[in-house]
Amino acid sequence: MIDTHTHYFLKDFDNDRFALIEKLREGGVSSVIEAAIDIESNFKMRKYFFDCDMVFFGAGLHPLRVAYADRIYGLQGCKKMLEVLIRTPKTVAIGETGLDFSRGVFCEADKERQRAYFIMQLELALESGMPLILHVRDCHEEALDIMKSFGEPFKGVSHCFIGSAAIAKRYTDLGFYLGIGGSCTYSKNEGRYIEFIRDLPLLPMDRIVLETDAPYLIPTGCRGRRNNSLNLSAVVSTLAQAQNMTAEEVEMITERNAKECFFNNAGTL
Fold it and tell me: Which residues of the chain fall below pLDDT 50?
């Protein structure tokens, strides 16, 4: 299995980071992709895992971290750092990047700043030919419209996808895969989860990749207070039931999808 979205650089893993990575290897996880959050995390993940053969990197800036980065480095400063990071070994994606208007982002200036940093990273993706790791929350239509306005095909993953089959089709039509993680095991009494769980059997398996978002979004029924890639088995089980497939089939298909998305042109797998 390939976990296409983790954050093992976070302090949640300070006590057992490298021991856990070995447990993942023993537990059937072949590779993980560390998705960047802020500028500092781009360097931290490479410091920890540069010599670890199963860990690969994104290079990006999360939409909820752009305000701080803008104050410290400015847009051009961030762009220059990302341009350097993209060229470092084992970098296989740009992200996570996108738009997030869900957490008190009410000011139009904040939204406009997110848009500017998102567009900058979209441009880097097209220039470099790298796939994107997208973080989009409560603004799928706007993010999709921005990407469509480029008039060029993107590739990558819509991370933590919990939208409807109709929204999924818009992403896959643009060239994206759908990152499915612990959310598929939830049954929260919220419209977006109900719709997502209802449409789960309709999602195209040839466009699904596995992810955990470790340490976040622990699947229902899994023990502990932090998520990790060993819990992909719970996601696989839920997908297998929804798609009327075996767990082995889901693992095989999603691993193939992840390789096609991230590694076909990277010369790493």
Answer: 266-269
Residue pLDDT, tens place only, 148-167: 999 998 999 999 999 999 99
Residue 33, beta-bridge partner list: 56
How much is the pLDDT for 195? 87
Structural domains for the chain: 2-263 (3.20.20.140)
- Residue 122 near residue 175, CB atoms below 8 Å: no
Which one, of 55, 84, 80, 58, lies nearest residue 69 by Cα?
80
Q: What is the pLDDT of residue 105?
A: 65
